[in-house]
Design the sequence.
């Protein structure tokens, strides 16, 4: 009987680990191939409602990453992968489960950032302006 319980617990553990490693939040799936030009995102952005959020700065780190200075939900800053002359709109901050965000450039001056947790359906949106 103990062997049977052990096997069931092992199978449950393995199936949970597989889900955690392969699951993707719906928010990022819808924007997998979307990017924003580096020239449109780098620099300072100010929240429309300064009581809700701080000023942020998008800063390029070498040739492969852009980070947001000013927001820190996880262990490090949110980072975005550089793809050619732009960045992927999906960013991540180190944590478990990871903190994720998606950028939406609404027009040349307004940027919406949607924050959420890995596999979560709840989101928070903040609009920033140049």
Sequence:
């Amino acid at each position: 009987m103990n062997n049977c319980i052990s096997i069931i617990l092992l199978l449950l553990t393995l199936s949970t680990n597989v889900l955690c490693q392969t699951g993707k939040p719906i928010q990022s799936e819808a924007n997998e191939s979307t990017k924003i030009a580096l020239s449109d995102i780098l620099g300072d952005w100010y929240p429309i409602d300064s009581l809700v959020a701080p000023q942020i700065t998008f800063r390029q780190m070498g040739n492969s990453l852009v980070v947001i200075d000013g927001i820190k939900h996880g262990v490090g800053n949110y980072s975005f992968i550089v793809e050619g002359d732009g960045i992927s709109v999906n960013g991540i901050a180190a944590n478990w489960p990871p903190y994720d965000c998606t950028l939406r450039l609404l027009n040349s001056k307004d940027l919406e950032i949607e924050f959420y947790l890995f596999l979560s359906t709840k989101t928070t949106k903040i609009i920033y302006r140049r």
